[in-house]
Amino acid sequence: MGIILKEHIEYKLIITEEEKKFNLNKKEHLLASPKHLPEILPRVFKKERGKEYLCFKKQNISEKEIKISSDYFVGIDWLTTDKSRFIQVEPKLNDKVVESFEKVSDIENEDISEKEIEQWDKETKDEIETSGNEYEVNVIEMLMQIMSHSEVSRHTENLLLVDWEDHEILINQKQDLLTPFLVVKFLNLLKDITRKGLKKSYYKEQKNLRNRVKGKILVGQQIRQNVFKNRLTNTFCEYQVFGEDSLENRFLNKVFIFCTNYVENNKIYFKDENEIFWLINYIRPSFEHIGSEINIHEIKNYKHNPFFKEYKDAIKVGQQILKRFSYNITKTTEEKISTPPFWIDMPKMFELYVYAQLLKDNPELKAENFNYQFSTHGNALDFLICSGDKKIVVDAKYKLHYNYSQVHNDIRQVAGYARLKKVKNQSPQLNEEIECLIIYPKPIDGICNNNLNLGELKWDEVSVYHKVYKIGISLPTIK
């Protein structure tokens, strides 16, 4: 039985010993005997600068009540260590949080009392909890945009956490985010490989040759297939061939067939069908003459060639996809599937989505102009844009706060980055204040700017700060 949460939402579970009461409302209760209370151990997504980032949080309110809260990771995991309940966090955002962030940043009056701030926070929190104005973020569409730029796609390695060793969770196909995520990532890696051309290498081939010998004779197969069958002019040989039908390419083709089958049977995940099918049709001709018969154990011992770095990532993701389907292509059509626990880092996803949008809307700039994750003194700026005589500190703020003080802390943090000497000294060197820009997500039907062309942006200045600006960009959503 699963508990479904939205991002950044709290949920209370009442502990009960009565099985009848539990069965009547499983969503609100946790069944436990006095001697055995199911243990809840939130998974750690990552550790950065001595801080642990938990996929979800647990707080014991009393002996009979537990509070579960989601943060900004979406996915599915076991809630209890006895595997009796699981938790799922959906990528849904509340536009009331966005409205609060915009209202706070637009307030020009700085003389607000603590009582007024407290009242503001309480009313906003009530609005968020009672509001039904939510939109579900299309994570797969965001990934499509990210993976379309090779400069951005190489930063996706730590975007996903999957525990392949844990017990799998049975869910409906529609609840699955992991499979389409891996499929999109694999197809885009394959696109980069086919654009450069498939790798050619020496590989072994076994063939029953007529009236000739090549390489070495395989005695066992020769006796079984030729001597016993009185085919005395045939010789079963193994020899090396230089070409594209190698072990690695056959493996990629096998995974490609799985992905094609999955996309055709699960179009619901792909908002723009033309884009995903264009990708498949772009890749298909390169593998027309490549086989798909392969011993999976052979690929486990594959040695990466540094001259073909795209193969390393594609084979890694391909192995995950085959493991996902238990190497059985018929599982791509099932309505009920089992999935390993997984989590997606949504703030990181938003950063990369903004990065892809900046590259798309500013073709005259290169990846090095954006200085993604520019680090200094334990701080990491999302972007430090340096071009010509312009320098901008950009913060992609997916984790919006509605709390008055926290909103200002976020703004001051960005402004503080612009005062760092390492940032000031980065070319071009400016004597004047560096401009700061906060980019945040807005609902699809909100008034926002989808064009991040730095030469055309209409700057919306944060009222009480000098040269600090904000802009909302729409995210792809699922209706």
From TrEMBL:
Pfam families: McrBC (PF10117)
PANTHER family listed in its UniProt record: PROTEIN MCRC, TYPE IV METHYL-DIRECTED RESTRICTION ENZYME ECOKMCRBC
Protein name: McrBC 5-methylcytosine restriction system component
Species in which this protein is naturally found: Chryseobacterium taeanense
